Amino acid sequence: MQLHTFNSTWKDCTKDFFRIKEYRFPDDLWMCEGAARVTAENPFAVSGREKVTVHLITAGKYREGQLYIWTPGRAGRFVSSSKEDEHGPIYDVVLKASERNLFLFKFLDKHGTFEPDYANRLWVAQDGGEIWAHSQAAAVSIAAPVKKPLIVYVLQTGAQVPPHLHLWQNDSDFVTTIEESEPCQDGWARFTHDIYTGREYCFMLRSPDLPGEWESKEAERNILLDADGGHCTFAGDSARRKLGKEGVWTLEGDNQLFGRQPFADKKICLEIAARDSGCTLETPLFLDVWINRARTQLHTGLTADADGHYRFQTFPEVITSFSFRSDNAAEQIERHCLKAADDASEMHCYVVLDRADVLPMQPPADLFSNPPFDIERPGVWVADDHLRFALHCPKAAAVEVVGDWTGWQDSPLPMRSTLDGTYWWAQVPVADVTAALGGSFHGERYKFRLNQARLVQDPAADWVDNSDLSSASRLVDHQAFAWQAADWQRPGWESLNIYQLHPSRFSSRDGQHGLDAVTREMTAPDGYLRKVKATAVLLMPTCEFAGDDSWGYNPSFFYSVESAYGGPDALKRLVDACHQQGKAVLMDVIFNHASASDNVLWSVAPESFFDGDTDWGPMINFDHPQVLHFFERNLTHFMRNYRIDGFRFDFTRVVRFGDQWIAHVKQPGSGGGWGFMQRLREAVRQVDGRCLMMAENLPNDWDLTYNSGPMDTQWCDDFHDRMVDACRGWDMMNRLADAVQMTHTACTRWHEATNYAESHDEVGNEPNRISSVAGPGQGLRRSKVASAATLLSRGIPLSFMGAETGEWRQFHKDGEQALDLNYYEQDGAACCLRNWWNRLSEIRRSNPRLEGPSRAARPTICSSS
Where in this protein does the record put region Disordered (predicted)? Predict the structure, then answer.
């Protein structure tokens, strides 16, 4: 395969490509199917070779195996080794004509088991007649391997017996345990072992005499010897860090490697600044100290000095962990941690007992105290001329608000924790904020600072710059928006004829995008939505999600309106425009999972918000009290501040049965989903009982929408499936009758079924537009049939955007193109179908029996013309 780019420059380093500063690559790249290697040299530009000697470097697994070589499109063959050296078997391969310029190869063990596919190698003629390869690694070398001594010094404080050093390669069959070590001064043990240069190795310590035989996985270290025997390791950014030729020093429990012997000469002073209200420790307190995750202690049972502070010395540049205990109890955390710089100053830190993080500055004296107000919701709200903040982050030792009006980290606003530890809270007069800003606070940016160090976005922010966790949240003044439809009242459900649309893929006319483009189609004299006689608009998810183009079912910020759609005011403009036109607005909300990326809830309180896993992301923890509060207030927030008229809840079966192994549940949670939905219902009813709660529950569980159930209506999956089958022409009349009858026999109340022939899933995940499945010449006719069945059946009708005109194209997940509304308005067939759809909608609205009919007998549908 040949790839072409422009103005490209790369360099070739022993057949592995490393990008140079220009970040360019050659004009021609050559690669071969089945191997990862890429070369800048045309294998056919040189004369082919008749013979190649292949050296395999293996610890033992492949010594009695075979070599397998092949070329693309041709059968492979096995080659046995001719001899062996200290590194492994040697294969003298006489090449066939098709192999003389390139071939692929891999090795088998004596049982006939191949190496993993990631080890597939490519040889090209430019490699020459002799090559070396390590087992289970794809790299090919034209130079013979060299071994040099690895030297590791280990200190395990408090241990009576030196540990063993366990050494291995991640991409090879090499693994060994070095049990013998040479004792050195100050308790250090010296290990040596010859390893290959230029290859990355890993090692950990094993102590058979300790209860925990292996040290923590966090202590896994990587090491490499360069060509001159220098010891190297890799930093967190994968950059190579050279440590020198004398060896490396490491401490049990931590992965830090030193190029010289470190000493425990860094002075630490700990001051207890506060204690969690649930802390049971009694004085006197004793301090135990470890190196990171070490199994043996560096210091044991330290007591306070005369000033009440605790002092000790530790090693710089490694993580030091510690915890306090008393005669009767220990802290309810694993350990506190700090990392000291390598300088001569004493490091003074502040500790909050039972909160793990260590603080560089003293927190407020009343760190644990209840607010003088009720915490209405998480996030930010205005009450009594104050901006009030609340954050659920139960493991933090300190939280502050920083933002435009605080000079960010110049003058942070300290928060306090409630006595029960559920919320951090703060308040500031609105006048102080506007004075600092010189005007309105609407749109001003802020973040929370955790433990006086880490900045995070507000998980319940009403507005964010974008979902990236490094971005900022923004304040919203909900009182500043001037609503025009001031007398709007949520309609009765019998009047609902719902039109589902995607906020950014509905229209792009007049250069508008996102929610404002939809508003344009509702307000402009030629607006398309003014020509569609739906009585309600159902928006696909508008909460902030990762990226800018999505269906929206990867929620990151549940209270925010997607920035790419225009943010909070754009949603208000659309709702206001719809209400002025007499149309209700429903929102699609996702309360079964959160996004697998840009997950702000995971960054502040993962143990509270999640306790299972789904195919789409971590599962919500439905029975946690703060999670219940978070999502209850989310619904009432949109009802009050955005005047939303109803909600569609995504895939509620995961909510209800999330503690079981059902479809889309990768790891069951603790349950509580039914009670979770009941609480949501109660919260909504307290604001307005006319707000519709609609479930997507597939397959249907009708008790969900019974009088005692938490939902008012659910998408009738059975109606859809029979409707689509009928439009395919599969037993058409009986299936059509079944679809219409379904809403009579399965439901106790007329509104429990929401009937649809198309939805975003049904026409997006599969090409199931009615006009498409109907077959040649039947699309518009059967779209009429589907519209009639949907709009005139017992239940609440729902149509997906484009169904009213016979749209036939699939609604792809990765698409960005909006509907061609100009075509919809100009094409005769599309206009005819839309007129039919509108007339059926008028018939439904003018006939009370169709709006909310009682039970009826099975309808009779004949097949006559």
Answer: 759-778
- How many helices, marked H, and strands, marked E, lie in the chain? 16, 53
**Measuring CA to CA, which residue among 38, 18, 23, 39 is closest to residue 240?**
18
As a whole number of angstroms, the distance between CA 257 and CA 831 comes to 73
Q: Which of 436, 333, 449, 307 is closest to 389 using CA atoms? A: 449
Cα separation, 655 vs 530, in Å, equals 37
- 154 and 220 fall within a common domain: yes
Neighbours of 220 (CB within 10 A): 14
pLDDT in tens, 661-718: 999 999 999 999 999 999 999 999 999 999 999 999 999 999 999 999 999 999 999 8
Local confidence band at 852 (pLDDT 50, 70, 90 cut-offs) = low
User: Is the same domain home to 751 and 800?
Assistant: yes
How many domains is the chain partitioned into structurally? 6
- Separation between Cα atoms, residue 623 and residue 627, nearest integer Å: 7
483 in a structural domain? no
At 459, list the tokens.
Answer: 């998980």
Question: Distance from CA of residue 22 to its chain's centroid?
Answer: 32
Mapped onto helix, strand or coil, the DSSP state of residue 641 is helix
Question: Maximum Cα–Cα distance for the chain, whole Å?
Answer: 101
3 state SS of 11:
strand
Return the sign of the alpha-carbon dihedral for residues 213, 219, 225, 230: negative
Residue 351 within any structural domain of the chain: yes
Whether residues 351 and 338 fall in one domain: yes
| Cis peptide, bond prior to residue 699, ω within 30 of zero | yes
Confidence of residue 855 (pLDDT cuts 50, 70, 90): very low
How would you write 744-803 as a 3-class SS string?
A: HHCCCCHHHEEEECCCHHHHHCCCCCHHHHCCCCCHHHHHHHHHHHHHHCCCEEEEECCH
**Residue where a domain stops, chosen among 195, 222, 251:** 251
Rounded to whole angstroms, the Cα distance separating 93 from 129 reads: 10
Q: Please, are residues 49 and 27 in contact by the beta-carbon 8 Å criterion?
A: no
Query: Alpha-carbon torsion 806, 810, 811, 817, what sign?
Result: negative
Distance CA 645, CA 493 (A): 10
The secondary structure of residue 114, as a DSSP letter, is: B
The end-to-end CA distance of the chain, in Å, is: 59
Cα gap 727→737, rounded to integer Å: 12
